[in-house]
Protein 1
Amino acid sequence: MTFPSALEEHFRLWPPQKAALKKLGIKTIADLLYHFPSRYGDTSEMKNVANLAQGETAVVFGKISGLKMSKGFRTKISMAEGLIEDGTGKIKAVWFNQPYLAKMTAEGALVRIEGKISERKKTGELYFSNPKIETVDKLPTGVGDSLFGAAGEKHSLYPVYPESRGVTSNWIYHAVGKIFKSGILENFPDLIPKDILSKYNLPGVKTALVWIHAPQKTSDALAARKRFAFEEVFLIQLQKQRAKKEWQKNSSCSINHAEEHIKKFTSRFSFPLTSAQERAIAAILADFKKNFAMSRLLEGDVGSGKTAVAATTAYAAVTTTPRNQNFGNLQVAYMCPTEILAAQHFESFIKYFSHLPVQIALITGSGCRKFPSKVNPDGWTDISRNQLLKWVANGEIPILIGTHALIQKSVKFKNLAYVIIDEQHRFGTAQRQKLVRKDHIAPHLLSMTATPIPRTLALTIYGDLDLTLLDEMPPGRKPIITEIVLPNGREAVYEKIRMELKAGRQTFVICPRIDEPDPTKALAVQAKSAKAETKRLKEKIFPELTVAVMHSKLKDGEKEKVMDRFRNGKIDILVSTSVVEVGVNVPNATVIVIEGAERFGLAQLHQLRGRVLRSTHQAYCYVFAETNSKAVVARLDALRRAKDGFELAEYDLKFRGAGELSGRQQWGVSDIAMEALQNLKMVEAARAEAGRLIAEDETLSRYPLLAESIKTRDGEVHFE
Ligand code: ADP
Ligand code: MG
C-alpha cells in the first residue's frame, strides 16, 4: 500500500461506493486520509428506545426489520419505513422521498439510527422521521460502550464523515483503520516545515491523522483539526503570494493622467462621486502609473457605484496612446458573468461615453453589437462576430464588453491595457495568466465584487490582490424596509405589494428552485419553485397583473428578452431564481419577495435585497421563511439589524449551516479551512509564514514538497 495508490487496489468497492467516492473526489489512499470527519459523535450520548421522548434528537443502535416502501395515499410522496428494536423496545423509522434507503439496508441488519423523534398526533406513537441510518458490525453492549474500540482501546468518540449516498461513515472509519494498521503512516510526508510546527505548537502530520480520524479525546481532535486548517490556509497563502510575485514581474502599459482630464469626464455625471468612489479611482490611477501590472479588487456593497469607477478608469485607459506611439489608443475589456449583465453594462457605458468619439462593442454567445451605429448615432447596431473581431484586432474598438466570450483565443486585441472583471470571484491565477502576452506585458486588472465576505476569507482567497473598499453608499438612498414574514403573514404582504404595484412600481419574487422537486431524489428540497410560483401568482393572487418567470435554464436570448420587458415596465412581477442576484439594475422595482429564505446565506439574501436599492423610492424586502423555527427567524432577523453586508458575512461564517457560506462550492476552500477562517490570528500567522518563505526562497526550492503541492493546487482553480 502506498499513498498515491488507488483505493480499489486495496479495498473491495461496490459500484455505489465507487460512485460516491468519485463524487467526494477520493481516488487514492492519501485522498481518503485527507477526507476528514465533519464532527464526532459520542457513544455515551446514545439512548435506549424505551427512554426516547418526542422532539429530541437521539442516537439508538438496534436491529432493523419490517422494511417496506409505499406511496403516500393522497400526496403520492414515496416513503420507506422500518422498525428498530434494541432490547428495551421498538420504534418505527420513516423516510420520505428516500425509498432507496429501504433498498440499501438489509432486513435484520444491525444499525445506528440518528435523528429527530416525532409523535403521531392521533395515536401518540413515537417515530424517527428522516433519520440517518447506517449499518454497523456489532451493537454496543450498553450505553457508553465503545462501538469502534478494538480490544483494549477505548474510544468513546466516533467520527461522523460528511454525508454522502453510497459510502457510510462506518465504512470510511474502517478503511482508515486498515490504512493505519498497514504501517505506511510512518512515511507520510509532512507539508508543514518543522520549525513552523513547533513555533505554533501544531502536531506533526502522522499524529494529526490519527487524532483527526480516531481521537481518544476531544482536545486531540481539535488540535488535529487546527493543524490541517493551518496547513490548508498556509498552502493557499503560499500559492497566492507566489502568484502575486509572478504577476508583478509582468510589465504593463503605463497610463498617465492629469487630474483635470479625469475631472472633466466625471463632472458630466448626473451625481457627484462619493468620497469612497474618489478614493477608489485615485488608487487605480496610481496603479496605472506604475511599471508593473495592477491586480486590484474593488469590493463594494450592492449599489455603491462600482460601474462609475470602472467607467472613469476605463476612460483614462482609452484616452491614452500606446507606448512609443503618437496615435491610436489603449483598449479595455469588461467581462461580466452573464449575458444579462453584459448587455446592461453595454447600455450604461454607452451613457457614460456617448459624448465622446469612443466606440463600444458587446460580445456574448448570442451575438455582437456596436455603438454608435452609422445610421443611428445615438444607438447601437448588431454586427457580425467577424467584423467585431477585426475592429478589436486593429484597435478601432477601444472598449469591449462581454461574457467569457471576451477572453477566448479568437479575440485578439491590438493594445489591451486594462481588464475589468465584474462579479467573478473565481477568476483565478490560471485565467489571469492567459491575459499575459508573449512579451510579458500584462493588462492592468480590476476585479469588482459586491459579495461581502469576512476579512479572513478575503485575506485568504484574495491574497494575491490589493484591496480597495467602496464603503460608502451614494447619498439619499432610503434604507430598505425589511420584514421577516411568517407563514400566516402572507396575505397581508400580498395586499401591500398590490398597493405598490398600483402606484406603478414593480416586484421581484425570488424562489430557491426552478422546478418542482423530483420526489425520487434524495432529500429533495421541498422549496417553492419559480415555475409553480409564477403559475400560482398569475392565477390565484394577481390575475390582473403581468407575471413572468426567469431562471438559468431559459435560453440566453430569452433571458434578455424577459429582462428587457421587465426593465421597460411591461412585466409587473418577475418571479426568478437567484440568477438575478448579481448586478441587475431595474430602478423601478421597489419590492422584493424572497421565498424559502432559510435556504439562502445571509450575505446572499443581502445581495438579493440589493436589487431594489436602486432609486429614491422607498424599497421593501419581504423575507418569507417556510418554518416558524425560532433559530431560523433569529438568523434572518440579522438582515434587519446588520449595518452592512460585511457584518452579515461574518454572521454567516459564525453560524454556518446548510445554505450558508459553503466553502468548497463557493470559494474552493475546504470545510476545515472554513473553520479556520473564524480565527483571524491563525490566518494571519499562516499568511506571515507563507510570506516569509516566499521572500526567502521564491521558487520554494528548499521545500520541494510544498512547491509540488502548490502546483497541483494551481491546476485546480475553477472558472465559473
Ligand atoms: P454596483 O456597485 O452595485 O455595481 P452601480 O454601479 O450599478 O452599483 O450603481 C448603482 C446606481 O447608483 C446606478 O444607477 C448609478 O448610476 C448610481 N450611482 C453611482 N454612483 C453614484 C453617486 N455617487 N451618487 C448617486 N448615484 C450614484
Ligand atoms: Mg455592478
Note: Confidence is low (pLDDT under 50) at residues 143-155, 519-525, 657-661, 716-720.
Protein 2
Amino acid sequence: MCSKGVALVTGAAQGIGRSIALRLADDGFDVVVNDLSSNRDNLKAVADEIQKRGRANSHYTADVSQEEQVKAMVEHVVEQHGSLDVMVANAGILGPTGPLVEVSTEQWDRVLAVNARGVFLCYKYAGMQMIKQGRGGRIIGASSLAGKKGYGTQTAYSASKFAVRGLTQAAALEFGLYNITVNAYAPGSINTPMLVSFDPSEGLDMAKELSPFKQVGVPEDIASLVSFLASKESQFITGQTISINGGAFFD
Ligand code: NAD
C-alpha cells in the first residue's frame, strides 16, 4: 500500500499511544513514535512492530513539556520522512491522587506542563509545519472523561484535560483556514498501565462499575476513533472532544 502520509504519536511506548501508532501503521501511514528516554526499550519495540507491518518508521525520545525538544522532534519527522500529516498529542501523566488542599504547586505545575503545555507545543509545531506544507492535516489530542466532568481527587489532572478541550476548540478555529482539523478524544477508563497505576487494588473493579457494559475499554477502542479522525472521511469534524467511555458519561 502506498503511504497515506506521515503520523507522529507521542507517549507511544505503551498503552493507548502504542495502540494508536500500530493502528495508523495498519491504515497505511508511516509512523514516528515518541516517548521519554526512560521508556526507550518499549518505544523501540513499537517501532519494530511498525517495521514488521511494512511501514516506514522511526522512534524519537523527547519530553513533550520541553519546547526545544518538541520543535526538534517535528524537525526530525520532516527530515527523516518528508512531511508531517497527522499529529497525535497523546502523552499524559496522572496527577497526585488526593484532596485539592494537599496538592503542591510543584505537583500542579508538572501535570499541567505535560498534559496541557505538552499538547499545546505539539499543536503549535505540528500546525506550523502543516501550514507550511499547504495541504491540510490532522491534529488530535488526548483529553479525558476527567476533562468533561470534574474528577475529585484528581484536581490537576482534571484541569489539564479541560485545558486540552479549550485548546482544541481555539486551534480548530485558527487552523480551519488551512484545512487542518483539530480534535481530541476523551476516554473513560481504558485498561492501560496508567489505569492500573491509578488504583492497583480496586481500580479496574471500580472503573468497570461506571459503564453499563460493566467493563473497561481497551486501547484499541481509542485507536479506532483516532483512525477515523486521522482519515480523509473526517474532514467536516473539527474542534470536537469526542467521548469514548462505554456509556459512563453522556455529554
Ligand atoms: P500510560 O501511562 O500507559 O502511557 C502514557 C505514555 O506517555 C507513557 O509511555 C509515558 O512514558 C509517556 N509520557 C509521559 N510523560 C511524557 C512526556 N513528558 N513526554 C513524552 N512522553 C511522555 O497512559 P495511557 O493510559 O496510555 O494514556 C494515554 C493518554 O490518554 C494520556 O494523555 C491519558 O491522560 C489519556 N487518558 C487515559 C485514560 C485511561 O483510562 N487509560 C483515560 C482518559 C485519558
Note: DSSP finds eight helices and seven strands in the chain.
